[in-house]
């Protein structure tokens, strides 16, 4: 490591105060409650590392936290589950991570000792918390410095930038878990990626193409539809139009699809189920348009379909995604990078859904 880098790390370690995006109450308007505040730099525990945050990405759960629904979260709160940066301090029991390592966060906090964790299903741990969403008070990624257990950071290859790592980490890991771990996609299958213009959908399209699948993507407007094609989708339809599901069926010559990648929810779920082939699989990780959907149960038993749920993923899955990013086979797509002083606008852009790719903020640059 160069002398200048060592000097900067020493300076960072001696910091006593930092800037953080804090909210102390809930509101439907992020601009009413999120403030950049001066707070103490966190003190790490023996199994933790202290991270200088260079890039942090937004997720929909950041909005849920600000809104205070669908679940309650600790207040005062710092959101942010996806960060990339440099380790500037390590606890006494940390053995694999060193000061100066470039890392990205794995935000799935689990006990690591229960049956689910030790059988490779840490995403099913009953004690699981999503860091930056359910954690606190004042423990998340939208800050100049943050801390995580050693087991919750992944080293970055030099070829992967902080921005690219932050942008792909949560959505890439979750999409990998949905398609590879849960749905078990195979080459040659037809995969329907709902919401292809979202961060999740962008990752899903690329992973499905990595496995040589035929990909049908959906998006909500012409601009996003065109970008899905450029990203690698073979076909695209507008899921906001009446009869969108009939267009999907026409694309498949009325055969239906093998796998559906779902995170939209109520407005599309019944039609999605009807698109599955015999023995097909729908894997869901969200319901941004509502939870109380209905399905025709005859599809379930007559077609022998599989309805699967998925939440986040494993650290190993994140490492797989970062490896593919380093090879240029999966690419981060970034819509906007905001200075930290204006970071609340990222929440507003998320709520408006007028994005193609991820929104980032840069806590070290005000």
From TrEMBL:
InterPro entries: ADH-like_C, ADH-like_N, ER, GroES-like_sf, NAD(P)-bd_dom_sf, Zinc-ADH_QOR/CCCR. Residues 1-24 are annotated as: Disordered. GO terms for molecular function: alcohol dehydrogenase (NAD+) activity. Keywords: NADP, Oxidoreductase. Residues 29-361 form the Enoyl reductase (ER) domain. SUPFAM superfamilies: GroES-like (SSF50129), NAD(P)-binding Rossmann-fold domains (SSF51735). Residues 1-11 have a biased composition (Polar residues). Its EC number is 1.1.1.1. It is an enzyme of class 1 (oxidoreductase). Coiled coil: none annotated. The keyword NADP applies. This is Putative NAD-dependent alcohol dehydrogenase. It comes from Nitrososphaera viennensis EN76.
């Amino acid at each position: 490591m160069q002398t200048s880098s060592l000097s900067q790390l020493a300076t960072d370690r001696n910091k006593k105060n930092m800037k953080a995006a804090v909210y102390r109450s809930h509101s439907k308007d992020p601009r009413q409650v999120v403030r950049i505040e001066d707070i103490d730099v966190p003190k790490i525990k023996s199994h933790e590392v202290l991270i200088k945050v260079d890039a942090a990405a937004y997720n929909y759960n950041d909005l849920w936290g600000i809104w205070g629904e669908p679940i309650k979260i600790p207040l005062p709160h710092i959101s942010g589950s996806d960060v990339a940066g440099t380790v500037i301090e390590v606890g006494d029991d940390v053995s694999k991570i060193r000061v100066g390592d470039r890392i990205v966060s794995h935000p799935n906090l689990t006990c690591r000792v229960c049956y689910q964790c030790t059988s490779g299903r840490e995403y099913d741990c009953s004690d699981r918390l999503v860091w930056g969403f359910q954690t606190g008070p004042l423990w998340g990624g939208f800050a100049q410095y943050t801390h995580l257990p050693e087991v919750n950071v992944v080293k970055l290859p030099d070829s992967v930038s902080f921005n690219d790592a932050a942008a792909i980490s949560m959505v890439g890991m979750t999409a990998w878990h949905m398609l590879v771990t849960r749905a078990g996609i195979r080459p040659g299958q037809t995969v329907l990626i709902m919401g292809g213009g979202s961060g999740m959908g962008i990752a899903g399209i690329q992973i499905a193409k990595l496995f040589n699948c035929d990909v049908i993507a959906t998006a909500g407007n012409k601009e996003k539809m065109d970008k899905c094609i450029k990203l690698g989708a073979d076909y695209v339809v507008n899921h906001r139009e009446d009869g969108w599901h009939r267009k999907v069926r026409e694309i498949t010559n009325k055969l239906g699809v093998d796998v559906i990648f779902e995170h939209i929810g109520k407005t599309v779920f019944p039609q999605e189920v009807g698109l599955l082939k015999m023995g097909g699989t729908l894997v869901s990780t969200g319901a941004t348009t509502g939870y109380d959907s209905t399905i025709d149960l005859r599809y379930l038993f007559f077609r022998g379909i599989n309805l699967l749920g998925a939440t986040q993923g494993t650290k190993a899955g994140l490492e797989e995604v970062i490896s593919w990013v380093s090879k240029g086979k999966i690419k981060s797509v970034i819509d906007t990078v905001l200075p930290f002083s204006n970071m609340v606008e990222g929440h507003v852009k998320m709520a408006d859904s007028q994005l193609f790719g991820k929104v980032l903020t840069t806590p070290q640059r005000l």
